[in-house]
Amino acid sequence: MDALSVANLVSFEDLSGRDVRRILDTAEDMARAIGFDGDAPPIPVAPLDRILGIVFFEPSTRTRLSFESAMLRLGGQTLGFYDAANCSVAKGETLADTIRVMSGYCDILVMRHPLSGAAKVAADAAKVPVINAGDGHREHPTQTLTDLFCIRRELKRLDGLKVGLCGDLKHGRTVHSLAPVLAQMGCEIICISPPELPMPERYMTKIQAASGTRPVETDDLQGTIADLDVLYMTRMQRERFADSAEYDKITGCFVLTPEMMEKGREQLKVLHPLPRIDEIAPEVDEDPRAAYFRQAAGGVPVRMALLALLLRLPEYDVKDKSIGLGKAPRYTEAAPEVVAPKSELQPVPGKGPCRNQQCITTTEPVEPAFVKAEDGPVICAYCEEEQTEH
Amino acid sequence: MDALSVANLVSFEDLSGRDVRRILDTAEDMARAIGFDGDAPPIPVAPLDRILGIVFFEPSTRTRLSFESAMLRLGGQTLGFYDAANCSVAKGETLADTIRVMSGYCDILVMRHPLSGAAKVAADAAKVPVINAGDGHREHPTQTLTDLFCIRRELKRLDGLKVGLCGDLKHGRTVHSLAPVLAQMGCEIICISPPELPMPERYMTKIQAASGTRPVETDDLQGTIADLDVLYMTRMQRERFADSAEYDKITGCFVLTPEMMEKGREQLKVLHPLPRIDEIAPEVDEDPRAAYFRQAAGGVPVRMALLALLLRLPEYDVKDKSIGLGKAPRYTEAAPEVVAPKSELQPVPGKGPCRNQQCITTTEPVEPAFVKAEDGPVICAYCEEEQTEH
Amino acid sequence: MDALSVANLVSFEDLSGRDVRRILDTAEDMARAIGFDGDAPPIPVAPLDRILGIVFFEPSTRTRLSFESAMLRLGGQTLGFYDAANCSVAKGETLADTIRVMSGYCDILVMRHPLSGAAKVAADAAKVPVINAGDGHREHPTQTLTDLFCIRRELKRLDGLKVGLCGDLKHGRTVHSLAPVLAQMGCEIICISPPELPMPERYMTKIQAASGTRPVETDDLQGTIADLDVLYMTRMQRERFADSAEYDKITGCFVLTPEMMEKGREQLKVLHPLPRIDEIAPEVDEDPRAAYFRQAAGGVPVRMALLALLLRLPEYDVKDKSIGLGKAPRYTEAAPEVVAPKSELQPVPGKGPCRNQQCITTTEPVEPAFVKAEDGPVICAYCEEEQTEH
To answer: Which CATH entry fits the domain spanning B12-141+297-321: 3.40.50.1370, 3.90.1150.10, 3.20.20.140, 3.30.565.10?
Structure first.
């Protein structure tokens, strides 16, 4: 099994296009090994003497459980803590020290942290691979991988698809991460949202840079659904609105119902990062085009693949390990060799503290560091926030 | 290994008499495999690539740990959450959605929930078997199975026993479940309680229906103990009484002491669902007739059996799995083919919401449904509460 | 594998010198088996069908995780609870009952409890071995074993070393336990602390009794470091001082910096029980003489050794278990046959309750019991507090 080009997974953008394809292909092997599609009786997984450390400084039950399931399905074990209340951090220990000690108990770590850039601090300190399951406001890369895995399985390709993103695009972190990647892969993005909750300009620019076209924006789900290959629904949060009546009025047109589904094509697939509240009527669940529960379940083989690749389990596709049965299916996507090509970042000397109050450098005793791409703005090397004058 | 007649364990009454006997016999195999009686060195359990998901919407540490121990003793693994505080339910997700997602992480689920009927909603939504570990005010079926397992082991039969139930029979949910089952199996039930805390009429009727005789009621433990084969003690909760003096006065006669034990027969066995507070003096623990700690430990082989049967582990008694060593011992009980024969329930159309404020239909978007047996009252299909006029 | 002389580990002082050596030697085997030094690829650990029960009545995340890691590295499994909030103790159950029930779910227990003497109550009640991970104010014995393991690995012996203990020696429970043991083994102890935070007289007496010499006391870390083989740093807690300025003034001279390290010998090793706050500058971490992260990691093989020995895994060093590869390295320490020879304790009849308000006998229904050594004071048999007149 060829190694990934990275030793940790801090940010999706660290992955090369080859890395992404390798993870998705390995996830297909894993899906087959665990009988994901329910067809073939799986071969028993052999025990694996590797431990995944769960290092969650804020709770995220579902993310945690999908990682735990993945590690157990690989035959390995897990341990960890699920919020910061009782750990040594409460006594004033630095994140770096906590991570160094945890490195002594485990073979790989998955971390969630409330501050941006915390995953970079952890990866720098750890002696074992670190996977970012969310630091601060940024989406975690395994969610994006899970979305790609689902779309590729459901539609047999990742390029040339018409993808509608629907709902609260202003706050929906999942779509902020996914949209530029899909654009880069050759998909057309359509933004479907109330005018009050548009895709932020920052991401519009990113999508345009990746695909060459600025996404269409509309508030008409009803009129758009017939064109789509993928409809990616997001949660609209009642607490974002002044009152409940306002919420009901605005969100009404963005609720997916069986009637709307009648307008959709046969090959349409509906995704949702879950939990869903009111934005998809429960009756849609029975529609075979509703892919969101399969999407959630796909998080397990995707995370199995990532764990196996970062642990560099060399023998994982040979017989005595009983996993990785055969080869991945053929997909037609044009695989860009680099998903989101980062321009070479140059260090910028002599700046003060990061201006982002939610940056890990505000609490951790690391030297603030700044970088810039050619023609780009100066950004923090940890949280990647732009350091504009203020 | 023959399958059970049910795919889930929602209610004890769903089990046929054959199911109960199969679970208890398999539990004997499991007890032997894990060296439960301390006599034979157990053969190592082979790893089992199955995951038990613990889905506890309210805490119950002991129930959780006995299920975890059972799954680990089978060679399997566990994951889950232990209260609802941090899970997606807090964000407004339905129980059905949570269960569907958890189904993707596990091979079998055990659930505890504060609302009645929640186990039925979960079983309907899950793609894997669901075990009810308590929903709302109802006792969970694995406690009843554990009690039966203990009595059968200790007395070598389940029929024709004189069983005294002692303590707070008004609130003791364990005895509410157990008594009708034992009556059905041919045991004589004696209710021993303060007049303030009698067995509710509802359960008196059930016991009488099952055995043909109305149980004797008495407040004289001292005068009754000499007749008993089984004395099932229950907890008296100080908070149910006006003041501590009242509590001490009333409960004094219902505390089992070494002096009272002297009046009991040699074959008497004392059970208690634990935790016990003051109702059994610690000195009784040394008496070989005190079976309550063996009763608690028996929860592990019983739950191993239930997990193995619901997972339909077909090869579990063959050699390469190293468990299920030989055959169960001979017991003399008359095994009624159906434990608590449910009359055929007919749907009742067109009723409004369930009148039980603790019913899962009050929070979950499921259609309320009602059923009735011939000549019986209309009951909720979820929580089984009677829908009397109000 | 020869058994230890004890069935439980309640107190470090219960261990004979031979026990300590056996644990440390076995820990070396374990370190080799898990590739602790990173040199040799470890042989896979075979699954072990044994369960460690974690019974923590107060949280201690790091202690818990190091035990969990150790049990998983042995191939075994863990379950348990991590604070007392939701367990049956909250319903009024005695510690002894909780332990008896937990004994039915596990093969060995590790317990942490806020009251002194709780570990003795647990060991008396349990049917499986019990390891004390801290009860009340006393340090837990596996921390002391971990410290010894680290010193022996780093310096190839345990006798004849000059060991400086530095920081808040008044409250530092770790050094209270470690210093008498090292003194007994032939080390010279130097106490380096602010005059406000000296080693308590009680431990000064113990150290002197063990080594024959009263330790030197100084507040001059700078002037002492050049003489030391081991510098054991401890945490200074800001909350012990009247104000922050006072804290900064006093602690300033006890912060280990790269400049101070320059004065230290080449063979000097710096230890710290962690978490560290300000008392060691982060730059010292890069110094190869900084042993504290290796010390923390060493807790895993030490606890593996202890678990394996208390579980009496007889075949643990044979080939089919794939652990314990070969023999421990040669060390030069003079191994005293008994580490801290306890004089024979005689029961003292007829005393009232223990005078220690933090003693487990204040809440648990056990008969208070007192003992005394020849010429020694009367002490509680549970918490070992002296029962002076008052």
So the answer is: 3.40.50.1370
